[in-house]
Request: fold
Amino acid sequence: MAKRHTPAMAKIAAKREREIARNHGKEVQSSPGKEAWKRLKRNRLAIVGLVVIALLILVAIFAPMLAPYPYNVMDYDHPFEFPNSEHWFGTDQFGRDIFSRVIYGTRISIPIGFMCVIVAFALGGTLGAIAAYYGGRVDNIIMRIMDIIQSIPSMLLAIAVSATLGGGMRNLIIAIAVSTMPARSRVVRASILTVKRNDYIESARAMGASSRRQLLKYMLPNAIGPILTAITFSVATAILTVSSLSYIGLGIPEPMPEWGALLAASKAFLNTYPYMLIFPGLAIMITVLALNLFGDGLRDALDPRLK
Amino acid sequence: MSENTNNVPVLELKNLVVHYETQDGVAEAVNGISLKVNASETLGLVGETGAGKTTIALTAMGLLPDVGHVIEGEILLDGKPITITSRKKRDKKHYNKMMRAFRGGVMGMIFQDPMSALNPVMYVGDQIAEVVRLHNSVTKTEAKQRAIEMMETVGIPGARYNEYPHQFSGGMKQRIVIAMALACNPRVLLADEPTTALDVTIQAQVLDLMRDLQKKFKTATLMITHDLGVVAETCDSVAVIYAGEVVEYGTAEHIFNNTKHPYTMALFNALPSLDKDVDRLHSIQGLVTDPMDLPEHCSFCERCTERCDACSIIDPVTTEVEPGHLVKCIKYMSQESIDAMLASKAEGKEAK
Amino acid sequence: MLRYIGKRLLWMIPVILGVLLIVFALSAITPGDPVDQIVGSDAAPEVKEAMREKMGLNDPFLVRYGRYLIGIVTRGDFGTSYATGEPVAKEIFQKFPNTVKLTFLAVAVALIIGIPLGVISAVKQYSFIDNASMVFALLGVSIPQFWFALMMMLVFSVKLHWLPTTASTGGALGWVMPVAMLGIANVGNIARTTRSSMLEVIRQDYIRTARAKGQKENVVISKHGLRNALIPVVANIGNTIGVSLGGAVVAESIFSLDGVGLYMLNSINNRNWQSVQGGLILIAVCFSVVMLCMDLIYTVIDPRLKDEFNAKSKIAANKRAARKAAKAARS
Reply:
């Protein structure tokens, strides 16, 4: 679930982030991106994560070619088939090939995961950036509103919003984006505050750069490190949340083979055909694991002190 | 501990070599240093950052990081070795157990940065009492008593026992660190840049305090600093360290009044002077020699203003220029020995 | 300090107002008519209209908002459930013990396993035990909790018949799987947080100072290291408690555990808005209280923070005094 900060915690985090920025500002002034990439390449697990993510994206793109069967065609002659050479993951109660359904599932979970995060960062990030840039009263008002939203547990808020808007991909994205918006705004705000204290912003201001120009040209690129890490972890969380919501019946409706929904539909066969439950869950786990591995690597690469 | 009245120095370094073996290569931090400190005496270790001064202190305490190893040589405490070169797990374990008894007890250490040397979430008094309890069989109250006594000794009211480090100023914190280091009447005090992080006025107070305490406890002190002012005020003898080697060694008088080594001279030239009106301070050109990539010849020669051709070929041997005053520079070697070394060097090259 | 606590408690008023606003907004755009639940969706339009009028649903937005607030303030009335006719507050508090029990058991498991795992990992960085526990922790945060629950059911209920599939049956045994399900993610989280925080701490100078005193290594770690490393861990725990007290929705629904989460889920699904708004307000207040407690715990762990809070309220007080003085001078 989204990370929450109390005021005290936020303060500690900000302090630590300032220190981090100071520390690696010294070291990687020349080209922070390149240095970080070098460190990332050395981290084998992170590269494994990255490769798995890339493969999953390819699977999503070429799903129709890779899947041996269509995801939604029912075959009443072959229901409940145990995994075999023709149906690698077996078939479900309608005779649909589970392997194909899991493959098509990448077309749902992965884009949704990314979209949730993009929308959440677009909403929360903008607010966080505005708060950090203008500071003072604007900052106070925006962040207090975020506090209020955050005092509703994000899972409950997501459920409430998606129940209000109804099912479907778009509404699910909105629900998750809204419920995670405060946490994302905090991340962006913290990184921009860190950068804002650096001297080159002062010099940009002294040279008369306009506010918007300052924000975009000078602050964002330098604040991007922690934000990238946060994005990676957020996609992992979003994919887990989507599948949980689908599992309790609020996500993507049938016959779309969303992984959580596949599990929800198979739950009834836990006693009789448990194989149906194994593969969709594994698919979720591998995706999330890959994202977490990559996120860990990214964090370490951007914060070399931990090595 | 037996009191040594004969001439065994309290702390002695014998041809100490320490390397850090990291992923990026081997850093040769200390390269054959031999030194002695007697009771009630202060030896100054002077040199730039990265010369290997702190490594010496950490080696003596047995607190080298995991990548640091004593390659050869040893450090003796009252004539008994307190370093190991073995890397066997069992030996290390045994060694650590032995060193635990010395650390904080017979040997005290003052760290460079008082701001970060104290545990921020523990009462300062308890931090002093902790070391007392570790090395004396005393009750909690007795340890507390002793801690308060030590706080008073360094000029902090004992009533502040139950306060946290952040409630003290930098100078006060350093006093607490000193109290901690001296709480068990150590025979050796390793002071690693004890005043660097402090204001000048506070520096003087802390140095005075250390001197008084040394008189009182008769400790042998190793004063590590890059500040020649501190050396002048506190040290009986001085070793100037460059790239892990002693380049000049002598009494404070030798070093200050009869400076021989070009590096030592350069250090003096870099000092602001009160009686000369100069526009800008001299700095020593170039950077400290990279300990990952030490040359076979004199390691200072690239930065030396008095270098000659032979400097970039041979590594000078240490020469005694007057009784007790050692210099490691080609300038003070006899012409014959230089020629001999050049010849053997040339031979070695041909043989290759 | 007291001033700080007071300020934080006062802050709950805007939280309640805000949460209420969110719920009202959601109920306004939601399709479906709450009246359907009471009189049935096939009731005559006049009956529905009469019911709506009676419930005050036809009043303007602000009137309803105000009336609800007055209800809370004057009578402690958080509304009445459409479904049962019972006061929402009463229903929530009935469900609360189960949720609290689940939360604290899961957090306790996470602490008992997660903190030692993280500490050992940090102390023996890159060793086998570090790698093994970090793989375990990573799996813990990557595994979909509900799937983990299903797999546990498969093994322990279906195959081995050791554990019941619902929490309400089987007494203490029924709690094993829900607690394990929430616990595994928390163990992973806490172990990872502890490790990275501990790694940072053991590089600090004061750890070296402690070693220089001749202290034993494990005492150095436990006495000087752990407490300093604990703040991010406490923050993590606070988060988990705060979120889980609002109902571990998925866990409660999988194991039919009659707690706040399941209650909220059912209320949301049934468009029982009175229950949703009452429930969310209580949960938000509860969350704020937990967060306040966590902040107070920080100050116990790290005395520097206490001084910082005090200093901050002192500065605020000074500012106020200055403003007052300025005003007085002007008039």
Remarks:
- Chain C has two domains: 2-75, 94-305.
- The two ends of chain C are 33 Å apart (CA to CA).
- Chain C touches chain A through 61 residues (CB under 8 Å).
- DSSP finds 15 helices and no strands in chain C.
